[in-house]
Design a protein that fits this description.
The protein is mostly helical. 77% of the residues lie in helices and 0% in strands. It has 4 helices and no strands. Helix 1 runs antiparallel to helix 2 and helix 3 packs antiparallel against helix 4. The longest helix has 20 residues. The radius of gyration is 13 Å and the shape is flat. 11% of the residues are buried.
Length: 74
């Protein structure tokens, strides 16, 4: 089952580029709601955690590698 993470990717884009803290908190709340929805729909929690970590730190190669290694081992 391939999950649709496009909404979550969009939210994390806004989090990374938002400078106003009150709006950033708003997007973090939206991301938490979206993560809860994905988990309830049956997405693997560890995969979601690693994916969000890679989104939050877009240029961190280690985060992306850990996600890739997890998906390959699965």
């Amino acid at each position: 089952m391939a999950a649709d993470f496009s909404k979550l990717q969009n939210i994390y884009w806004f989090i990374r580029y938002q400078r106003r803290k009150n709006l950033k908190r708003k997007y973090y709340r939206q991301a938490a709601d979206e993560k809860k929805r994905l988990i309830d729909s049956g997405v693997d929690k560890e995969e979601l955690r690693l994916f969000c970590r890679a989104l939050a730190r877009k240029h961190c190669e280690i985060s992306e590698k850990r996600l890739q290694d997890y998906l390959e081992a699965k």
